[in-house]
């Protein structure tokens, strides 16, 4: 596995719970104001936070998954007060859409926190989680023109696999693989 970037010891990936509601609301407002297209993904949490956290917990356990979904762990980069970003770790990618366009991991850094290495740190921590799940290598994709996201992936040892045209996302997607050291 690649050597991960040095992380602030106060930053952790956490599951979202009742104690994180105020931090989530701040994260969501930042997304809504500065990245409304991606904020839509988090709108269920703004509408009914406790139900949202329950759904995320169920998805982590592979329960009550919507059609076409796979078990997925949702983590939040948190320092005790602020949510810096969210990262999704799909436990498997066994259908063409996931295997081609989505990959194992997707993430968002709060717009006000971008360009400060939080994406790089968050991905590094998520790779440890993937290893703990027994995933030997993870696939990540990024819009071909999303230089910041591609740098995050490359900083974590991402090996470029090529560019494809996404059938669902209808854009050029850069694909990367990262090997994980599997914990036994």
TrEMBL record:
InterPro entries for this protein: Acyl_CoA_acyltransferase, GNAT_dom
CDD domains: NAT_SF
Top-level taxon of origin: Bacteria
Any Pfam family: Acetyltransf_3
Domain N-acetyltransferase: 29-179
PANTHER family the record matches: ACETYLTRANSFERASE
Protein name: GNAT family N-acetyltransferase
Stored SUPFAM superfamilies: Acyl-CoA N-acyltransferases (Nat) (SSF55729)
